[in-house]
Amino acid sequence: MSIYQSYFGEYQKRIMSYAPLAIIGQSCLGSVAAMYILINGNTTLNMVQLFIVTILCMFYNGAILSQQKPKISFNLLIASVVVSSILIIINA
User: Fewer Cβ neighbours under 10 Å: the N or C end of the chain?
Assistant: First the structure.
């Protein structure tokens, strides 16, 4: 069993517990990424990065609020966390 499958199984079983925690966590991580992006200025590249971080965070929050399938919300959570982390590292 892969790491993805084991984490997804755990997320799926306890989605009502993990969803609020994940919303708070990925939103905070997205805000830190937005802060680091904006510290570097307001060039077109920075605004594109800010747009990507904001959209991914909003997609995950929207998926939870609209009660999408757990697989969709889990994949959006992973995408949001990975992209936010990469952009924090790039802009730090």
Answer: N
Nearest Cα neighbor of 9 from 68, 82, 70 is: 70
To which H or E segment does residue 15 belong? helix 15-39
First to last CA, the chain: 35
| Alpha carbon distance 40, 89 (integer Å) | 13
pLDDT tens track for 21-79: 999 999 999 999 999 999 998 899 999 999 999 999 999 999 999 999 999 999 999 99
Which tokens go with 84? 């936010």
Exposed/middle/buried for 49, CB within 10 Å: 0-12, 13-18, 19+? buried
Inter-residue contact 8 to 62 (CB < 8 Å): no
| Nearest Cα to Cα of residue 67 among 35, 19, 24 | 19
